[in-house]
């Protein structure tokens, strides 16, 4: 998430009431999670396991809960609770604003696009040309939709990320300040749910087709010309490369990558990254030939055991 204009280290430190290390006029241009940080961004870290990763990342300001040596060319914000203060920054620069109309006056809707009854379109949404948005679709603020996109009834774009910190008093939500981006020629079936990014974008690539009742988690990036069948669940921060096919009821863990041209058979469970150009099935999902050999071996063992 980029700020509308650069902020100084002193300004951010004052906002969250934190100490800082670095020049007071050190420039900060946005905030992001570790997997998408860029030069000028703040990243937060609150566990020793991830200190080194955060300090060595592309982020140039690290919001951290321990005084450490500041890497050259970077700055630090010292906080007793980086998670809380990251939320403060998100809320300050991207506050929730209640809608006053069903279709916002700030929404941009392209020529030839059809908006069916009972569609909600939030603030600063951009919809391209020749799209069809069917009844009861909800498009949260900031979403970006390309040309020739079809979205079927009851689909929701831009709900908050499912991201919580477990505290003694209950779960603390990480606020979402990102967006959903649909490229040109995307089709979404009925009752799909696509969460916005925490700080970046959840992106569906050009020409991808998604069936009914599919869920896509925050900050996931899906490539071009993918096919995703119904009731598939994709966790947050997943990368699905171009021309991947997923059949019904596939489920996958967060933070993994599915290589270009992979085919995932129905009801497979994916717990780790998979190479492209191969077919997979089962839980945990493995290449089809490997899985078939495993199943055949198990059947022989059971058959031999029953003969005894």
TrEMBL record:
<keyword id="KW-0012">Acyltransferase</keyword>
<dbReference type="InterPro" id="IPR011004">
    <property type="entry name" value="Trimer_LpxA-like_sf"/>
</dbReference>
<dbReference type="InterPro" id="IPR007691">
    <property type="entry name" value="LpxD"/>
</dbReference>
<dbReference type="InterPro" id="IPR001451">
    <property type="entry name" value="Hexapep"/>
</dbReference>
<keyword id="KW-0441">Lipid A biosynthesis</keyword>
<dbReference type="GO" id="GO:0016410">
    <property type="term" value="F:N-acyltransferase activity"/>
</dbReference>
<keyword id="KW-0808">Transferase</keyword>
<keyword id="KW-0443">Lipid metabolism</keyword>
<keyword id="KW-0677">Repeat</keyword>
<dbReference type="GO" id="GO:0016020">
    <property type="term" value="C:membrane"/>
</dbReference>
<dbReference type="Pfam" id="PF04613">
    <property type="entry name" value="LpxD"/>
</dbReference>
<dbReference type="InterPro" id="IPR020573">
    <property type="entry name" value="UDP_GlcNAc_AcTrfase_non-rep"/>
</dbReference>
<keyword id="KW-0444">Lipid biosynthesis</keyword>
<feature type="domain" description="UDP-3-O-[3-hydroxymyristoyl] glucosamine N-acyltransferase non-repeat region">
    <location>
        <begin position="26"/>
        <end position="91"/>
    </location>
</feature>
<dbReference type="Pfam" id="PF00132">
    <property type="entry name" value="Hexapep"/>
</dbReference>
<dbReference type="GO" id="GO:0009245">
    <property type="term" value="P:lipid A biosynthetic process"/>
</dbReference>
<protein>
    <submittedName>
        <fullName>UDP-3-O-(3-hydroxymyristoyl)glucosamine N-acyltransferase</fullName>
    </submittedName>
</protein>
